[in-house]
Amino acid sequence: MSPAPPFHAPGGATPSCPRDALRRQIARIERAAPGGAPPPVFAPFGIAALDDALGGGLVAGALHEFAGPAGAGLGLRLAGERGALVWAGPAEVFRDQGLPYGPGLAGLGLDSRRLLLVATRNATDALWAAEEALRCPSVAAVVAELPGDGPVADLTATRRLSLAAREGGGLGLLVRHRAFAGTSAAATRWTVAPVPGPLDGWGGLGAAAFDLDLTRNRRGPVGRWSLAWRRDERCFTLAAPSLDLAAVPAHRPHPPRPGAVLPLRRAG
Predict the structure, then answer these.
(1) Which of 173, 183, 192 is nearest to 251 (CA)?
(2) What local confidence, expressed as pLDDT, does residue 180 receive?
(3) Residue 164 above 60 pLDDT?
(4) How far apart are CA 79 and CA 42, in angstroms?
(5) Where is this region: Disordered (predicted)?
(6) How is the chain split into domains, by residue range?
(7) The three-state (H, E, C) secondary structure of 208-251, written as one string
(8) pLDDT at residue 57 is higher than 90
(9) CA distances from 174 to 50, 165, 187, 217, 228 (A)
(10) Helix (H, G, I), strand (E, B), or coil: what is residue 83?
(11) Which residues does 73 contact at the CB level (< 8 Å), separation at least 6?
(12) What is the pTM of this model?
């Protein structure tokens, strides 16, 4: 897969700075929209306090950034029941972490037939593939998963992903394996970790659960929530109060309880 082509200004002239071309593209989109920008579309969690903080849920047509691999499954779950799902990353990510687990996706209510995996040579190519996929209106969500803190996804790269998501209207999900302190154009930033979920009361495995730490939110306040996924009802609920999040520092993964069900299981 070839690297992303450079920006070009209208008329074929090469701008002195990629940001100039990006501004021109944004201006053209805004001018073409009748009566201004259309109302935003949201992908809600179904948790009132969380959706209120986000202004209605994760806003579609935008980029959202997650620290922690668990953010990939969580983000795809919010993409709804229609449209293709694209998961792009360097081949080393899928080699070292394993492939997404089909039954795990099914447990989150995701049809694995909708999912297209794109393994690339490096992180730069993965970002290019994600950008191209986001421009397609038939794609509901795109995950760009990067190893480490993903410094290649800088402000310019995240602006390009944000613009592509705006053009296609889907969810852009940038998943870094560690939190990134640099500047980003993402609409929201999260730290996500799987945690032990509530027991089913019949001696079975616990429900899938997430610790969500919203650290940046362009549409409202930040906060922290613990959500459990109810597989049969196919909805999120707030985790049981007995799940003590205060005992674990923020941005630190919670140790899994033996037998806990995680949203995704990596092979190998």
Answers:
(1) 192
(2) 82
(3) yes
(4) 10
(5) 249-268
(6) 19-31+40-189
(7) CEEEEEEEEECCCCCEEEEEEEECCCCEEEECCCCCCCCCCCCC
(8) yes
(9) 20, 11, 11, 15, 22
(10) coil
(11) 100, 104, 105, 108, 110, 263, 264
(12) 0.74
